[in-house]
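As a warm-up, study this chain.
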Amino acid sequence: MGYFLSDANEAIGMTKAVITKLSEEQILIKRYYPSDALKFMGHYEMHDEFSDKRNGEEITLPDFVTRNRSKNGVASWWYENGGKSREINYKNGEEKGKWFNWHKNGQIQFQGNIKWRTDMAQIKTDNPKE
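Now compare it with the structure written out below.
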């Protein structure tokens, strides 16, 4: 059983955020590296500043800070080379279910199931060596 700190600050090293209103309850946030490569994409609960936007409308901002614990759905991170770095499922702001990590070369580093989430995630890995 491994313990991992969550990298909650996906805004580090990004140059812009693109926010799309998906519904009255949910927005999609994409964050980009300075090279314009996708760094992060995740689903969040609606933030008040986007409630007056139309569904499907995109807003591009130089920076955007999300409310704590507002992720809801799949969140994915990428390396600047375009390879996926990590994928975590969230429910009501907490990490729940499957968690995947990849090396920069694209090979699976580990995958596991998150049992609970507070300040630390307890993960039962599917890797036989863990």
